[in-house]
Amino acid sequence: MARWGAFLRGINLGKRQMKMADLKACLETAGFEAVKTVLASGNVLVTAEGSEAEIRQRLETAIADQFDFKVGVVLRSDVQLQAMLAQNPFVALDPFADLTRHVLLFERPLPAKLHIEDRPGDTEILRVDMRELYIAAYKQPNGRYTEHVEDVLKPLYAVLDKGNLDTMRNWNTIEKILK
Length: 179
Hints:
The protein is an alpha+beta fold and 179 residues long. It has 2 domains: 2-80, Alpha-Beta Plaits; 87-177, no CATH class. 30% of the residues lie in helices and 28% in strands. It has 5 helices and 8 strands. It has helices at residues 20-29, 52-67, 78-86, 149-159, 171-177; strands at residues 2-8, 33-38, 43-48, 73-77, 99-106, 123-128, 132-138, 166-170. The protein has a 4-stranded antiparallel beta sheet. Strands 6-7-5-8 form a 4-stranded antiparallel beta sheet. A hairpin with a 3-residue loop joins strand 6 and strand 7 (132-138). The radius of gyration is 17 Å and the shape is globular.
């Protein structure tokens, strides 16, 4: 059996609410083992047998059946998550800079040789991997950090297959999920 990190897209927004204890119980009932939720934003560790596609389908079906709404799930194996942490693209940043660190996780591979124009000192694309995009978002005069992330990512979404599910997480969440 393999360990997986499941990142749920778009929960606890509006009427799409779920308590993490209820999510944990739902997934245990569906046969997942060693279920652990991390924070209240839809991050779950599970142990299961099967391919990534099979596990994603089982997760999405169990959640839809329990909560009466569809939720997209982006998965990463424990090995993939460990590699993300080991290859941390944020270590080169000024440790005193006022910024937030994010990773945009995609279900399917991104286009080859993808280049996204960033805004140095505002919204910087630090690295693009096969299914991840790493972003540093600096504090803006209005106090917000991610003010221009959508603008920087518009060209990416213009070339992506509309079915390529994604979800963004704060890097702190990725660090925390494996502890």
